[in-house]
Give the backbone structure.
Amino acid sequence: MNLFDRSTFECSKLVTKRYSTSFSLGISMLAKKYHQPIYAVYGFVRYADEIVDTFHGYDKEQLLEEFELETYKAIQQKICLNPILNSFQIVVNTYQIDHHLIDAFFKSMKMDLKPQDYDRQLFEEYIYGSAEVVGLMCLQIFCAGDQKLYNDLLLPAKKLGAAFQKVNFLRDIRSDFGERGRIYFPGLEMEHFDDELKRQIEKDIKADFDDALKGILKLPKGASIGVYLAYVYYLKLFAKIRSCPVSQIMQRRIRIPDVVKLSLLAKTYFRYKFAIFGLQTSEI
């Protein structure tokens, strides 16, 4: 790999570390061969998400359209002066990432440009494009061309992405509604959001977590530990959210302190070292 390509992967790594300590910790636990490609995927989705979430005062629709066109141009030409897109195109071309996954991702990002009235079908479509396909991109990297393994783990990977995204929705429900006018959960009216509705949403999330764990245990050894750490982190965050009434999550963003994240890292490594993947959602 030449100096330019290496530098672009370093940019994706920097973006990942700046935006997410939890995912950075998870990636650090993967086998080294997975680090650069997973950083590249996260850097790519992070930049697109930034366009729709934070570039206020700019023409977000135009910026996202240009980013999408530049993405496919980079993949086709196998080079791009945008470092994030250059590292991403290398991964797409090396691991033969399905372009349908990229299409679905951009479709969900475009949904965030305008207010949406989410019914169950549109909600599932958004979840698929914004989260599940990211997990599937990573799964293609982990499986490295083993189509049978990919097919076996496809559903659990989607469930894991869905669980993560729904936890994010619950955690950010106040800011999504107050700052961006978004309500993702189907049929939810903020003035009627109460603890009973919250419990119904949590029941759905718990089922996703339960289904996802079955697939994590079947991942290649160099991938399972990092994915399991992300699972454990989000499970901890989910437990904290479940313990809070609606009134509390509408007042502040629920977080996991960095010291707790590091503790989870140590405990997760211990579980992995001694092959005792035992944490279940029933424990929270």
Observations:
- Residues 162 and 260 are 24 Å apart (CA to CA).
- Residues 3-275 form a domain with the Farnesyl Diphosphate Synthase fold (CATH 1.10.600.10).
- The mean pLDDT is 91.
